[in-house]
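haha ok so turns out i had the wrong file open the whole time. this is the CORRECT one, sorry everyone. sequence first:
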Amino acid sequence: MEVLVGCRVIVPFGRSKYYTAIVSRIHTEKPEGYTVKPVLEQIDTAPILLPTQLKLWEWMADYYLCSLGDVYKAALPSGLKLESDGEEIIGGFKPKEEVRVRLASEYQSEEALHALFDQLAKTPKRLDLLMRWLELSCYFSGDIKEVSKHWLMSDVNASVSAFNGLVSKGIFQTYMVEVGRLSSGSADKSFVRHKLNASQSLALQQITAIFQQKNVCLLHGVTSSGKTEVYIHLIEQALQEGKQVLYLLPEIALTTQVTKRLQLVFGEKLGIYHSKFSDNERVEVWRKQLSDEPFEIILGVRSSIFLPFQRLGLVIVDEEHENTYKQQDPAPRYHARNAAIMLAHMVGAKTLLGTATPSIESWYNATIARKYGLVQLMERYQALQLPEVRAVDIQELRHKKLMHGTFSPQLLNAMRDAIEQGEQVILFQNRRGFAQLMECHTCGWIPRCVNCDVTLTYHRAQNQLVCHYCGYSITPPQACPACGDTDIRGIGAGTERVEDELKTYFPGVKIARMDLDTTQSKSSYERIIHDFEEGKTQVLIGTQMISKGLDFGNVSVVGILNADLMLNYPDFRAYERAFQLMEQVAGRAGRKHKQGLVILQTSDVKHPIIHQVRQNDYQGMVQMQLDERQHFHYPPYYRMVYVYLKHRNAQLLDQMAETMATKLRVLFGSRVLGPDRPPVSKVQKMFIRKIMLKFEAAASHSRIRTLLMQVQQEMLANDKFKSLTVYYDVDPA
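then structure:
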């Protein structure tokens, strides 16, 4: 078999370890500097990796300062990677098979079939099965269809023994057929499409015109302005040109609503790809994209950029501002928005970035650097009004003892009015669990994770204190281990506690919670969203999942329970993120002919971000942030790289970090800050230190990479530092 670039091969490592590799280049150059391993076997007869995919992998490894192997592990579904366990090769894709049933050839003449009817007259259940098979297979029409055993057996009241009897007599024959796991919808021809209004039509024309000049366009459209309908028209244009489309979303939760909408229009042309799918399902999507009949549209989350596209023409990055597009751990720590732009550039496709609250980097690229085109859609669909945002001072209310647990009187009254009028409510609390932490009221003892430098969160449903970093959990102690007192109290409300409190104020009202704890399965998202859409649920409580573009027509009140959680975070993006989250959550409120109401609870009503949210003043927020970032050398004016160091010995790690920072200062001077301890400085028994690097936007990335790798090699060459782990976060989000 000829070895081909893009095909998988099996390579041995050690005596009994075998791994899947991918051929990236065929050459006649003598390898130097490493031991050559033999290729034992080529798995594929045709490439599973297209040249553009490999090119993207190489760019990601170079730009995000990781190895090509890191990208390979992230990009390829596990079912396409084989590994060994001793001598046995394990893993790999397992096709789904189905038992099909056919009539033996000797009974297919008219005479033989009539004789068979007479023969089976004494066994009516077998005769029923035969007659049903003839009907399902359309036998007498001449165009015989395949019949599955499951279909046949579920359609008649026959026993397995009757079926087995027909098989043992040689009347029925069974055979296996590979069937796909992918369920594809069909377009609904009766579905009435919304006509674009004047603003949407103008936006579509402007985007199309910009794509004649630029490869990237930012669509800044207020919440409920109908951006998705504009996307659909652009997708139709791309399909008419014979191109494929990649439609990226930041969260799986969003795929439920958008999938329904796109399936009504595009039917089986649409494929879905995200981590809640089984690995075998993801492999089937991958294989279909390599076939002669690939999905024309892929709707998915950030990992979708790794799929093979044969004729990609358009990439849509919806809610482009979302930080969940940034992969945190493990490497590659890539930003899917930026990687998607690069992918589109490599294949000559266009990229549309859509959002109501653009990231400051994208806004800068569109308005100041002029790298992107800009289209604005500032009118809500069907002339819906933007919601009224009322800020409520919960510090003053607490001082006057007027707060009802997590709820202000203003929020409770607004909720009560909405529920009485048959309307719905969304409550946003960006923290899951019941209580942020537990504390001894006598001595102040707080339970902490034994593996990580964090407090444990109390989850009352499981009666467990849980670490949200490593999963360590314990049962809450009955008495304080430090002083012996039993007065241990929960501090800080999570979504679970909000739900519990709400039931006391609104008994009998249907309440649902959407957070990481309640959405473990693919179907759980769909069930929660479907029940809320159908009005079976009156109040939806959630974390930032509920902020991401979900569209509910009957929501009149939104409550932001604690804005301070977002504002008081030690990160240069904190104010930008807080504004985006609050604006996006607020955008869920409002119905036709009625203005929505947002109750924004905060301890600092005079904070500038609170004022900007109330006024929907995105440009005021951006200008304030750009001025600060230019002054203090932050993106988009400067590029940032975080250098992380990990080790089990904290004292040795401090020494390593100081040594590395000193070496970096020799090369980069005042661009180096730190080392310091990140907010979470220990995870899974590994201590962490961080060095921050700030580079001018025009600085050579390849030169920076070369020097960083040089310093890392110098560090690891020191016997004392060999056990050090170093990794990088480029363009941290």
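The radius of gyration is 30 Å.
again sry for the mixup
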